[in-house]
Amino acid sequence: MTENHKCKYWEGNEADPVNHPGHYTSGEIECIDALKASMSHAEFCGFLKG
């Protein structure tokens, strides 16, 4: 498969499996947005840091 062919394949695909995978966006809100809404800013930053 050439690079040009790969680009044409993805041009019409609206799915974004890297930034917005389907299993995280099946509802009306993404999981990360629900988590963020449930925490203070400091708590969310701590969550992201691990």
Describe this entry's structure for a reader.
The chain has 50 residues and is an all-alpha fold. The chain has a domain of 30 residues. The protein has three helices and no strands. The mean pLDDT is 76.
What separation lies between the terminal Cα atoms? Answer: 39 Å
Identify the quaternary structure here: single chain
Catalogue the unreliable spans: none
Counting DSSP E segments of at least 2 residues, the number of strands comes to 0
Number of helices: 3
Write down the overall geometry.
elongated
Global mean pLDDT: 76
Q: Rg, please?
A: 16 Å
- How are helices and strands ordered from N to C? HHH
Largest sheet: none
Q: Structural class of the helix and strand makeup?
A: mainly alpha
Helix content: 40-55%
Strand content: under 5%
Quick synopsis:
Helix content is 50%, strand content 0%. With 50 residues, it is an all-alpha fold.
Short key terms for the protein model shown above:
single chain; 50 residues; mainly alpha; 50% helix; 0% strand; elongated
Strands, helices and their partners?
Elements: H1 3-11, H2 31-37, H3 41-49
